[in-house]
Amino acid sequence: MATYEKxxxxxxxxxxxxxxxxxxxxxxxxxxxxWATAIENDLSSGRAGLAPNRTFGELxxxxxxxxxxxxxGGRWEQLRIALFIREYTSLCDTKLSNFNTETVxxxxxxxxxDVSELSVIREWAILQNACSxxxxxxxxxxxxxxxSVKKPSxxxxxxxxxxxxxxxxxxxxxxxxxxxxPDTMMARVGAAWLFxxxxxxRAGEICNITLEHAHLSDRIIxxxxxxxxxxxxxxxxxxxxxxxxxxMKATEGSEYVFAIKAATLDAMFRKAKARALIEDLHFHxxxxxxxxxxxxKVDVMTxxxxxxxxxxxxxxxxxxxxxxxxxxxxxx
Length: 332
Hints:
Layout: E1 2-7, E2 10-17, E3 20-26, H1 29-45, H2 56-66, H3 74-87, H4 89-92, H5 101-111, H6 117-138, H7 164-174, H8 185-199, H9 203-207, E4 214-215, E5 220-223, E6 232-235, H10 238-250, H11 262-275, H12 285-294, H13 300-307, H14 312-319
Antiparallel strand pairs: 1-2, 2-3, 4-5, 5-6
Helix pairs in contact: 2-3, 7-8, 7-11, 8-10, 8-12
């Protein structure tokens, strides 16, 4: 039997049958009634939520074991899910029969007290996809309640670019020398920063370069595996080639040219940044600097090929940050 209640957020429908209690909130009563009718039909035919006594934590654990390994960044997703299960026991202990829009909304509001909107959006993507798989493939849920809850708004796109002075201070903090091979790991952090500014490559891409990827006679680095799952070729400027060959001399015999893991690079970059007294600068800001510089030399389609972007809106809004003072002379 379905019941309906008018609430501030809309109409809440509740269906109780055979020990299963499901609720969801919708904008209109008609939508709530349509949902309740579908749930009642599913319950009658035995299709709705084959695992009402399973918990949301069990759903996430199965997703991490069966789905995450096949995805790029799957290991990060598994770690994120494991941490989520440890931190949010109240949500993860919720029976799927009681997992509803109110549950999700309460988690969202509580989470936003501790972390940024962007962090919640990243976690949201994992949880929503896990629920989708549970609906479509496992039949653990009859519907995805996250689709009926308002997701936090994305913050304004970051537009931070490093100054020349900040780069020089970073190089000083890392001990990088333009005229000597970077024999220490910290010095190679400085080299990686310069290389990133010249190429627009991500930190992980730089750390994973092997000699097999380097076609130096053509001044090309071939990346067979990138964040979006597509290979790409990155052209090298003369300065990028100089940096790369300089690093090769320091790491001869290593499997990876820069001989540093991405996590180590990130940690050591933060340390160098603190030494240099630089605030609010991320290694990834080098990518924005590189692509903004390259935009003055190549057309937008070529720039997208170099960066690996398939959505030009992301390229424009996130990674293209021109300083209007640099373009004033073009108006005269």
